[in-house]
Amino acid sequence: METKKESLITRLTAKARDIINYCWTGVWKETRDTNGIRALKVANLSVRCFFDRDLQAKSMALTYSTVLAIVPAFALLFAIGRGFGFQNLLEDELYKSFPAQKQGIEFALKFVDSYLSEASQGIFVGVGIIFLLWTLISLLSNIESVFNNIWDVKHDRSFYKKVVDYIAICLMVPVLMICSSGLSIFMSATVQDNMHFAFLTPFVNIALEASPLVLAWLAFSLSFFLIPNTKVNFKYAAISGAVCAIIFQIIQLLFVNGQLYVSKYNAIYGSFAFLPLLLIWLQLSWLILLFGCVLAYSLQNVLSYNFLGNLSRMSENYSRKVTIVLAAAIVSRFRKGKTPLTRTQLGFYYDIPIKVVKNICEQLYRAGMINYVMLPDDKIGVAPASETDTISVGELLQRLDAVGLHDFIPRFSIIYRPILDRIDTWLSESYESMKGLLIKDIELPVDADKEAVVDAAPDPFIKSDDDDSNPAAGFE
After folding, report:
1. Is 226 helix (H, G, I), strand (E, B) or coil?
2. Which pTM does this prediction carry?
3. What whole-number distance in Å separates Cα of residue 387 and Cα of residue 290?
4. Which one of 65, 66, 259, 427 has the minimum C-beta count within 10 Å?
5. What would you measure as the largest C-alpha separation in the chain, in angstroms?
6. Using an 8 Å Cβ cutoff, are 215 and 248 in contact?
7. pLDDT tens sequence across 73-89
8. For the segment 131-147, what is each residue's pLDDT rounded down to a tens digit?
C-alpha cells in the first residue's frame, strides 16, 4: 500500500515538475498562437521582467522619493485649490481617493498649512518654490526612468521636455481632482434630489460607488500610456490599468479594515503609529504601478520574444557573429530596394531576440554604420548610413571596436605603450584579413512566409511593436 502511495506521489511530483518546466521554458518553443498560450507567455514574461529589473528595490527608492515630495506636492495642490476657492473639495477628494491613509493625509496637511503660511510672508517665493519644483520633478523623473527601464528605452526625455511636461502634470492633477469632486456633487445634488430624475437614483448611486475604481483605472492607464518615452498601444495600457485599479482597490480595502487590528502599534510608535503603515502602503502602491507597466510591456511585446535567456552571458565572439548577420540583413534589404524594416521586424524575420537586435542596432548607430529613417506609417526603420558597395566585415568590426570611451585611464597609455602597440598591430592585421569579405556578398536564407508578413501593411504583428519612438533621440 505504501509503495502505491509513494508511486502516486512520485508521479504527481514529476507531473507538477513537467508543468512548471513547460510554463517557465517550454511555452516559448510553442509555435501555436492560441489565447491560452499567449496568456501564459504574457504571464511568464511579466514575472521574468518583474524580477530581472529588480522592481522591488526600485519601488523602495520611489517610496523614499514620495515621502520627500509629499508635502511639496500637497502644498502645490492646495495652493492651486485655494486660488480657485476649492480647498475643501480637494481635501474631501483626497480622503475619498485614499481612505486607507486618512491619518497620513491629516498629518501631511498640518505641514502644508505651515508651508503655505510662509508664502504670505514672501519666503515661499525664493528657495521654497525651487525646492518644491525640484522634489516634484525629481520624483516624476525617477518614475519615468523606471518605466523606461521596463520598456528597454535607453534615453529619457530631454531636460526641457521633462520640465514642461512635469509642470503641466502638476498643474493638471489638482484641476482634474476639483472637476471630479464637482461632478460627484453635481450628480448627487441635481439627480438624486430632483423628483423628475428619481428613477435615475439607483444608477447614480452605482456610478458614485464605482467612481473611485474608474478614476484609478484612468490614472493607471494614462500613466502606462504617457510616461514611457516610447509608443505604447493604449489598448494594452487600458488592460493593465484595469488590472491595477482592481488590485489597488483591494489593497485599499485591506488597509482600511486592517487598521482596526493594528492598534497595538500605538503602544510602540505613539502618535506616529500611522507611519509604518503609510510606508508599507506606499511601497505596495508603487509595486502595483510597476507591475502594471510590466504587464503593458508584456502584452505589447510578447509576440516579439522568440527567445528568453540571460543575454548578458552572450560571448563576444557570438555577439560579433550576430552583428555581422544583422548588418548583412540591413544591407541586403537596402540593395534590393525594399522598405527598411523596424528593429522588431528584423528580430521577427531573422529569428534574433528583439533585445539583441536593439542593442546591436544601437552600437551600429553609434559606429556610423546605420541610420534610423522615418517610414510612411510613422514607424522608424533601419537603413545603411553609407554606400554599401565597399563596406567590409573588417571595417564593420573596426568601427564597432572604436565605439565608446577610450583613453580615460590616467597614464594607462604611457605605462603600457609597448603592449598596446603590439595589440594595435595584431588588431589591424585581423581587420585587414577580413576586408576582403564585403557585407553585400553575404547571402542569408530567405523565408518566404516571413517575408510576406514583414512586407504586408498593415499587419497585426507589426502593430504591436514599439519602434514608433525615435531610438536615435538623445544621440544628436
Report:
1. helix
2. 0.67
3. 44
4. 427
5. 96
6. no
7. 777 677 666 666 666 66
8. 767 777 788 888 888 99
